[in-house]
## 1
Amino acid sequence: MPTGTVAPIAQLRLIGSGPRADDEDGLDSYSQVVVGVAERVTPSVANLRVARRVRGGRVLEGGGSGVVITPDGFLVTSAHVVEGTTGTGQASFADGSDVEFAVIGADLLSDLAVLRLGGGGAFTAAELGDAEQLRVGQLVVAIGNPHGFAGSVTAGVVSALGRSLPTRSGATVRVVDNVIQTDAALNPGNSGGALADGRGRVVGINTAVAGVGLGLAVPINAATRQIIGALMNEGRFRRAYLGIAGQQRPLPPRLARELGRTGCVEVGEVVDDAPAARAGLRPGDLIVAVDGQPVETMGELQRLLVGERIGASVTFTVGRHERILDVVVVPHELAA
């Protein structure tokens, strides 16, 4: 080979080898964010060890993760992590400390539970954010403490918002709405751990693995803050019960023009002798407002059925046979 051809080939190899400077800068920036979030949130994330009684009197060990939310030792975790347990357990932190905890309250219909650490120590509390501010494609970091592997960290992006997660408590089935979907890997034992944004604020509580590369987290927002606050103060979250099954549907054109909106909740089934039946709600009724607040989805209807409406007269504005009328319902408390 002529010597004159060697230099250009060598030069091409030198130019084409190795990452570009701007790629290195981007990787460094990404790493710095993830490392910063991990360092900030990991001290607040605990590995939870619990015992469950099963058939035959046997006791099985289980666990998950939890997130400290107050310096005096309140934690939030997934309700399914502590469901069916003895009500106590051990929490281990990344610094090696091991603390007993007690279950203060759990709400299976939101898959959230609140625990209280013992010992009277001062704990590192995570900062809670607002999942309503998240955007698809935004960086998020999942931090758990599965099986004692302290500070297990995975990073990814918000894959989708507004997902739904079916939950059950006894015979009652409910949908947790506005669930966060992420591709940050979730492993067994990560349930109850933190999903944090790029500033280290906890915007979700990891709850489920939906498939390969798909994880779900219950959002931290105004609705779930209300649930967490009720569990901290009262040990339970009260919901109003109507006794209907419904679904979202478009309004008929004439009613849509009259009301200036397009959606409603259609009553599909009314439970015999339930508050809705006694008030005169019927299958086929189109719920468009509750006490004057517009309703277009089951999620909006569920959010309005809070404890304050239990035993109170609640006005449901419904469409029936192309007419608008008001039906007054007195909801009962939904049995736990």
## 2
Amino acid sequence: MVRPAAGSAAGAARARDERSPAARRALRSGARPPAARSRQAGQVVVISGLSGAGKSQASKLFEDLGYYCVDNLPPQMLDHFLELRDDEPDRYRDAALVLDIRAGDPAPAIEQARRSMADRGLRMQVLFLEANDANLVSRFSETRHRHPLQARRGVQAGIVEERRRLAATREAADHVIDTSGLSIGQLKERLFSVLPRSSRVEELEVDILTFGFKFGIPLEADLVFDVRFLTNPFYVPDLKPLSGLQPPVRDYVLGQPPARRFLDLVVELLELTLPAYRAEGKSRLTVALGCTGGYHRSIALAEELATRLRQVGGASVAVFHREIER
């Protein structure tokens, strides 16, 4: 029997049938198939593990870092998500997907997805979170949540059954992390000790927010500083209509000796505390500076504080003036 040549119509038809849907879409659009593309930027992380071991907290940590996160993704949808990522790489470049026993054993889907990622020239990281039985039982007792396999046999029996069902997923994981006794900050360090990190991950986002006390203290503030101890430009006729963004007001406020000393102390405080906040798992800190109307003193000080913090480094600094349009 003579087999059709590779270039024959029959051979071409077979080749087309064997291509993945994503590859066929790429060819129709004139793009190269995923396997022929250069390596995409970004990461796909699958988070699995025992119920109560910290998967939801891990997902929130990834979300804080800009990952697109999906909790309780059905395993059958994993390969479809990878195709969606091919179609919208900018939106789904970094993704963290939680697959666990709630939707069945994820092991087969993970292995299939690994093969699909390999065809794309990429590697998918799989993290498996677990904890000892005593910690898991205590967590379920504290939260009063029901274990997904508990039925009428109690939490401990559900944990034992879950360990058995997820044995293959645990075996397939790149990293197994025991969360027994870990704080949120320690969990974050463990997670990112096993994954490549950009310099941005190391930075704490610091939002400097100005406000007027007569309009209320911002609820989102972590630290609040009252700067009404400084002489108010509002009572200087030439300065009253100007904001703290304009040089005359800025010079008037920062020219006061207490203002410079105040800024020195706040910068010193933040240099001390920002690394500790990062270590405890905090990704964003809101520092609020308030004066009477939020238009003069607080704005001038906030802009100078932001300049100084950017020179210190280790933080991504942004400034927002709540009352500037009032």
## 3
Amino acid sequence: MKAFFFPTVLAMCCPAVHAQQAVAPAAQKPAEIIDDPSTRIILDVTRVNMLFTVTDKKGRFVTDLGKDDFQVFENKMPQTIAEFTAETDLPLRLGILIDTSNSIRERFKFEQEAAISFINGVVHQGHDKAMVVSFDTSAELVADLIDDTGKLESAIHSLRPGGGTALFDAIYFACRDKLSKDQPRHKFRRAIVIVSDGDDNQSQVTRDQALEMAQKADVVIYAISTNVIRGETDGDKILKYLTSETGGQTFFPFKVEDLEQSFENIANELRHQYNVFYRPEPLKADGLYHTVDLRVKGRKDLVVRCRKGYYAPKL
């Protein structure tokens, strides 16, 4: 039986949650975010990492740029890039968040097969790890972070649709309790792939609380909309907001046959990324959100996709 997710009781110091274990409920307490030192995600404010993708206007990856081609601004102040790399082989820490609510029942079989194909294509044993989280009335960890694609495939096949939609809870849990674990942070790519219509009606945390946790964990969110209505829904707007704020992208496969192509597009993006480091000037360890703007010098024909900022620790 699944249980409601309450962020008050998910401490990062807890033992690992086993596969098929639902997130434990709090005892008659309202949902709230408690500033418990054991649950804090610590950032090195002296070293800001930006993992990003560059494409042309037609969405084709641009992979031949160098350090001197880029400019970084924090809170509109120019920054000096300390390090630059073209990243194609950073170990991946991936969360597959699958909507198992009643609203996606008609496409569910296709979604399972497309997700399995994606995992088999991107997760390399001994290098990458992925997890599966289902969400309907509550969020449930179905497979923990592992590199065994066979177990991940079995976990996805075990899912059955039914219930409401607790999307924000699933994002919050995946980022805080799982994807933020491996350190140092800049040595891993952290990403979430959401398969959902984006209509949340059960979460205990808000959209912005879920987004903030993704930003603090340095997680890029990708989404594949299961909306079959031609025209943007409120759920689609939520998915687009979450992905754009973290440097990801939302895909809208109108036919079930296009689901696999959407997953393949995400896999391709994870293999075509750049990484820059800079040391903020002026340095402010104020606990606030700092906006970051990364540009290609003199190239308005190119599109840079990256997170829009970060939360500095408060020292």
